[in-house]
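Work Package 3 (structural annotation) set out to generate three-dimensional models for the target panel prioritized at the project kickoff. During this period the team completed the workflow that converts sequence records into discrete structure tokens, so that structures can be stored uniformly alongside our sequence database. As a representative example, we reproduce one entry of 300 residues exactly as it appears in the project archive.
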Amino acid sequence: MYILVIIDAFTKFISIRPGRDTKTTTTIRVLKDFFSYFGAPTRLITDRGTCFTSSKFKTFVEDSRIKHVLNAVATPRANGQVERFNRTISEALSAKCHDKNDNTWDEYVSDVQLGLNTSVNKSTGKSPSELLFGYNVKTVSENILGDIINTTTDRISGDELINLRNESMHKIEKQQNLAKHRYDKHRKLATKYNIGDLVRLERTTFDKDRIGKSKKLMAKFHGPYKIVKILPNDRFLVEDTPITRKKGKKYENVVSIDKIHPWLNFKSLDSENDSDGNDKSDTKDKSDSENDSDGNDKSE
């Protein structure tokens, strides 16, 4: 069994859908069902799973007029919201299945979804359901307490809801700036690359014959690959070269700057050459001065 997680980037409203496989047909069916409730988005950010890179899915997003953004290879932080929720969902389902049959985990998915959508988000200061619907959706425990306390639900509407969403937007921007500041403090300047540069890539996938075997002695990088396009946000479109091409099939992919390194680094070679040149010059100057000294001795 698998889980497809859909998150609204602004309100953080989440939809968790269990499924038996990750085929393109299954994924499209789940998304269509989600769109029937909330409408089609203008932009969809996904990883590079085969269900999202297939020609059938490409046709689906084009027909729906959705801009599809694929993450760079082996860069889960590019879709950090989903990755963070994936960990939370796993921990919540693990707690729900404690002392129970592990095969029944899908029965608790809706409980976890409701809990996340009614919990106050740190970035927005509000729950996802309140930002989306204008009121907090009740949980089962709140219904039980409601019978005792006899409370009523106040729905936010009109300008008040707009102000609430604007306030949450400013809080999100503040959190993003703080996160960027913390990240930039420990980040060095990125290497500059140009179109046509040869680079080596960090190895993130392994051949089938290496599965289950030690990878300690395997090369950490492979290449060379050539940069064919420079993209925004330190992303590069690379393609293989005749050396790395397999079965004559051309390979292209988007990689982030932290996953690539220069194929050959000439800076160290230049510094060594400069050092050798200086040593030779020093030796020559020394021999010349010794000759001049000998000449002076003779003249005396």
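The longest strand covers residues 221-231.
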